[in-house]
Specification:
27 helices; about 700 residues; cytoplasm; 6-stranded mixed beta sheet; P_AcTrfase; 7-stranded parallel beta sheet; alpha/beta; transferase; acyltransferase; single chain
Length: about 700
């Protein structure tokens, strides 16, 4: 189930805080602990806190430090993007989010503000973040200065771009709509959007649209002379006191701000008197311009008044100050409880809160992105920190991957080989690794050599292996590493960077053997495609599996998929879909599917099915309209090694997908094979999945 919601706007000044505050209130009414996260914030002066973060954490008393609630400032993101470090940006955001997710029952995630440098790329960044966090979105736009068509079209385009990237949208909100147009906008949105998307329309609210004296003081760099206790007064309107008092006071309105030169004692005193008079409106404050202060006698008179509204003094002239106040963008901040409470009330009044709460509780993400998948793998490995043996200890790629794995604190590593040669290679490559953090074993001189050889002899003597032969075999790093796993002296083994597949897995087949009820060892690749992660099997081991073997490969692959957090929907691939095709190859897949349904009726499986029908919803619907798998398959079982191996490599090369594996399945202990063309990242990822596999043994 999703534990978060992402709030995103299509433009600046849309009133996003209303949604943030309203959702926090809604969530806190239904769950005990709600966290708050802003992936990217505007740059703030040193020592200052982002206003959004300060407001939410303070008002709702969220148990977080401000620095925990964001990942990057805007300038940091722009700098990293200029260096083409998008993966680093997303990876760090996922890490920060996951840290918060662990502490709270639910997380409210608030997108960017579309202000300052880099605003042009913000929409794509928000879509990317929501997709990689695997959480649904609320999309907001302002109705200010827009026609009905422009507002509805803007929101629909935003919805469509999120859906196109695989992000579910739960709620669409039109904000700052003229009160008389609320019902028209609501109907327009409902008519345009799918029925499963909730719609809210919030009218313009004067309280939320006006600045406070505090905001004005900050913008004008003003000195507060009097009335600091009322500095959060709302400014409804403002006017310049330039005419004579008898004429000026007739222009005063409720919550007016009086702007006047500091030497106009008549206007100052008249405004203060009008504020306490029952015959005139209450005022919000007074701004004195020109750097002029009232005379001492006037100051003394003001000090003696029982009720004083805020009086500010600014250095600039009346014309500049008036124009500046007109451009101030109102904000909601922690001390302004009136605006916060008004925002929550507006949210509850105009948003379908009951339906939204139900959607949030029941929402389930449809898939997982490659970045989130890799992050989850690493965190899972770190949680148990298994011991993995790498037989090819002097290979450059193995040593570099070992450095990465130790730095990540993901596993404990044992390298096999000549100790002096391995240390010399580490020095030669200038790999900064503390030798005390890794184990290095030379099989021929190890304390366990005779015990391992004797064990191998006992296990294989029925195959005419004598002790001398067992000792010879045990000098081989593949046999020694496999025996470490067999004996429980290591949790898993990864090899194949130098050795062939046969050399790597032969010892495992000889004495680790297959699990009970499993007659065949098979393999899968985790294919990390741009927007999802799927499972391909078997692409590395079995050339021409029978129907029975195909069924076992599929069942094992489904179990692997589920163990790694991917809901298994199994597609038994062939050159035809359903009952249309005939021939030995398609019949073999059809029979395998029947065996699976008989053995595991709980599994969602479809076969035979073509690849396009398995992945494309429209094609799947046209060819197999009743299928639970067509168009949404996550596990793909290929009919033979030729097809599987070529397909995974074609997908990998043509789409830029990351292929993690092969991971062997069916053995009693985890042993995995690398390709001799593997990269350092391939080794890193294979060790991680081997460590996770080891948790099940």
């Amino acid at each position: 189930m999703s534990k978060a919601i992402y709030i995103v706007t299509t433009e600046p000044n849309s009133g996003k805080s209303i949604i943030s505050l309203g959702l926090m209130q809604l969530l806190l009414g239904r769950t005990a602990k709600v966290g708050y996260f802003r992936p990217i914030i505007d740059d703030v002066p040193k020592g200052k806190t982002d206003n959004h973060i300060d407001t939410v954490l303070s008002y709702f008393n969220v148990d977080m430090k401000p620095e925990e609630a964001f990942a990057y400032t805007r300038s940091q993101v722009v700098q990293l993007k200029n260096l083409d470090k998008d993966d680093e940006i997303v990876g760090h955001i996922i890490h920060k989010y996951k840290t918060i997710e662990k502490k709270f029952d639910f997380v409210l995630v608030e997108g960017t503000d579309f202000s300052g440098e880099g605003a042009i790329i913000e929409w794509d960044i928000n879509v990317l973040i929501a997709k990689n966090l695997g959480i649904p979105a609320v999309i907001l736009a302002s109705g200010k200065n827009k026609t009905l068509g422009e507002l509805v079209g803007n929101l629909y385009m935003a919805y469509d771009s999120f859906k196109e990237k695989g992000v579910d949208v739960l709620l669409i909100v039109a904000n700052k709509v003229q009160p008389e147009n609320v019902s028209i906008v609501s109907e327009g949105l409902k008519e345009k959007l799918p029925n499963d998307v909730l719609v809210g329309t919030i009218p313009v609210n004067p309280i939320l649209g006006s600045p406070t004296l505090k905001e004005i003081a900050q913008e004008l760099d003003a000195k507060i002379l009097f009335g600091e206790d009322y500095i959060n007064n709302q400014v409804g309107s403002f006017s310049v006191g330039a005419m004579q008092l008898r004429n000026y006071i007739t222009h005063l309105k409720d919550d007016s701000l009086v702007i006047t030169p500091g030497d106009r004692a008549d206007i100052i005193l008249g405004a203060l008197q009008a504020n306490i008079s029952t015959n005139y409106p209450s005022l919000s404050g007074i701004v004195l311009t020109g750097g002029l202060l009232p005379e001492e006698s006037i100051i003394k008179l003001i000090e003696g008044l029982s009720d004083i509204i805020p009086i500010l003094s600014v250095a600039r002239g009346t014309f500049h100050v008036t124009n500046k106040i007109g451009t101030i963008r109102p904000r909601i901040y922690a001390e302004n409880t009136e605006k916060i409470q008004t925002s929550i009330q507006e949210f509850e009044k105009h948003i379908p809160t009951k339906e939204l709460a139900e959607r949030l509780i029941t929402f389930k993400a449809k898939g997982i992105t490659p970045r989130m998948f890799q992050y989850n793998l690493l965190q899972k490995a770190k949680s148990s920190k298994k011991h993995i043996v790498l037989p090819e200890g002097s290979d450059e790629r193995i040593l570099m991957a070992t450095k990465m794995l130790i730095d990540a604190e993901a596993v404990t590593i044992t390298l096999l080989g000549n100790r002096d040669q391995i240390i010399s290679k580490i020095t030669e490559l200038d790999i900064d690794i503390d030798l005390s953090t890794i184990n290095i074993i030379d099989p021929t001189t190890s304390d366990n050599f005779l015990d391992y050889a004797t064990t191998l002899f006992e296990l294989r003597k029925h195959k005419n292996v004598n002790l001398a032969m067992a000792k010879d075999l045990m000098e081989d790093v593949s046999y020694y590493g496999t025996m470490m796993v067999y004996k429980g002296h290591a949790d898993g083994m990864v090899s194949g960077a130098v050795h062939t597949t046969q050399h790597t897995i032969r010892p495992a087949l000889q004495f680790i053997k297959t699990k009970p009820g499993v007659s065949i060892v098979s393999s899968i690749f985790f294919m990390c495609l741009p927007n999802r992660v799927t499972v391909f099997g078997d692409c590395a081991i079995n050339p021409n599996p029978t129907s029975e073997q195909l069924s076992e490969i599929a069942i094992s692959s489904a179990a692997t998929s589920a163990a790694f957090g991917i809901e298994p929907k199994v597609a038994m691939l062939s050159y035809s879909s359903g009952a249309s095709g005939v021939g030995e190859d398609v019949d073999r897949v059809r029979k395998a599917t029947e065996i699976i349904k008989d053995k595991r009726p709980d599994l969602k499986v479809e076969g035979p099915i073509q690849y396009d029908a398995a992945v494309d919803a429209k094609v799947g619907l046209s060819k197999l309209p009743e299928s639970e798998v067509a168009g949404q398959a996550s596990v793909f079982i290929f009919p033979d090694l030729n097809t599987g191996n070529n397909t995974y490599k074609a997908v990998q090369r043509e789409t830029g997908a990351l292929a993690i594996g092969p991971m062997l399945q069916g053995l009693n202990k985890p042993v995995n094979d690398l390709s001799r063309g593997c990269t350092v990242d391939d080794i890193f990822n294979t060790v991680i999945i081997t460590a996770i596999q080891a948790e099940g043994f």
